[in-house]
Amino acid sequence: MPDNWSFVLAAYGLAALVLGGYWRRLLRRERELAARERRRGAARDEPRPAHAPPGPPIPRR
Amino acid sequence: MRPKFVVGGAVIAAALAYMIYAGVTQSAVYFVTPAELRAAAVAGKAYRLGGMVQPGSLRWEPRALDLSFTLGDGTATVPVRHKGTPPDLFGEGRGAVVEGTWSADGYFRASLILAKHSEEYKAPHGPSQAGYKELIRTLKGDGR
Amino acid sequence: MTSRERVLGWVAGLGLTAGFVMAFGVAPREATQGNVQRIMYLHVPAILVAYLAFGVVLVASVIYLWGRAAGADRLAHASAEVGVVFTSINIATGAIWGKPTWGTWWTWDARLTSVSIMFVIYLAYLLLRAMIEDRERAARFAAVLGIVAALDIPLVHFSVYWWRTLHQPATLLRPGSTPMDPPFVLALIVNLVAFVLLYGYFVAKRVRLLRQEQEVLA
Fold first, then answer.
1. Is the CB of residue B117 less than 8 Å from the CB of residue B94?
2. What's the whole-number mean pLDDT along residues C159-179?
3. A26 and C205: CB-CB below 8 Å?
4. Among A25, B16, C187, C205, which is most exposed with the fewest C-beta within 10 angstroms?
């Protein structure tokens, strides 16, 4: 009975690729949301520095 | 609506329609048994035939790739001929499904042999060999 | 990332490692199929977790339609997405397993047909969610589809009993005792537990991300 190890490797490799791909997608989305959250927080909490030159207002959400 | 949703929806609808079509035309009666084929065999018509490979019926000519065997279901048998290599699990006393046509000469000309395996999983007799050792041996190139 | 999520992630990772060791180091080589049978430790847990995932979609959809709880809707959404991932693994590993053993990558028997219909229906579910702008409308439509789609789960599982198929009958979830030697069962159960943990990790993370997305957009 041939063992077909190449098929076993293909199956496990493909499964790792699919699960790893989905995991990375979740992590990327997590980072994007965290970055957006930080920007929002920065815009809201930090007042404009006193020495800042006059310019357009910092957009608020 | 964005075009990607239109395209996605169309692809999904087409896939679903095809699968339901395949289900009705093929899955509903996936194969006929030897008794059913014997009862109403039409020469030249394509069938999918399923049964047990009768013990002692298997002839295999590796050089010419000529394979012949008999499929049975307990009540009737059908001789099958095929050119090519059978799948790993094909063998006497096991289930098989073959695709092909009924020949006017009184045999089934198979274009595809499929092995049907049972849901039984048995450890080999004798000392069991853990898989990873074998895997490493195969990867090193001195296996098989 | 919450600490509960992190713990779940690590436990799932440990489970997958244990499952891998069981599949290749502990479970013996199968007598008739040889080592290619080890694909089973991916193939079977993947579909069982997909059943679980789509079962959760069903329950969460009913709860959503009952009380319009946004949390139930997020759970249904996340579970459907993860269920689709596991179904794709089941189908891909099945094709890879089928080629050397059956002699084909694919055939339209009732099991393979019904599982591919299930896959496409839940893809349609995710597409429906993505294309409706109004969140409550999307949730309502999706909940109805999430309930109707669950009809395909028993169809997939019992297809091998209701119709003639190339696929063999069930090994684990079946009437009577399993026709599988104990070491195979043990390896299968360890891998199943690992996949369930991974499912829990993915869903917990996805639900939290969906909540944050909705907060950002609000």
1. yes
2. 84
3. yes
4. A25
List chains touching C (3+ CB pairs under 8 A): A, B
Nearest CA-CA partner of B37 in B7, B68, B80: B80
- For B81, phi and psi rounded to 5 degrees? -125, 145
B141 has pLDDT over 50: yes
Tell me which chain A residue has its CA closest to the CA of residue C206.
A26
Alpha helices per DSSP H over C102-151? 110-131, 135-149
Exposed (0-12), middle (13-18) or buried (19+): which is C43, by Cβ within 10 Å? buried
Q: Give the global pTM.
A: 0.88
Q: Do C168 and B121 touch (CB under 8 A)?
A: no
Neighbours of B74 (CB within 10 A): 10
C205 in contact with A, Cβ within 8 Å? yes
| Predicted ipTM of the assembly | 0.92
Please identify which residue in the block is written with the tokens 């990772």: C13
Burial of C147 from C-beta contacts in 10 A (0-12 / 13-18 / 19+): middle
Among C32, C97, C209, select the one facing A33 at the smallest CB separation: C209
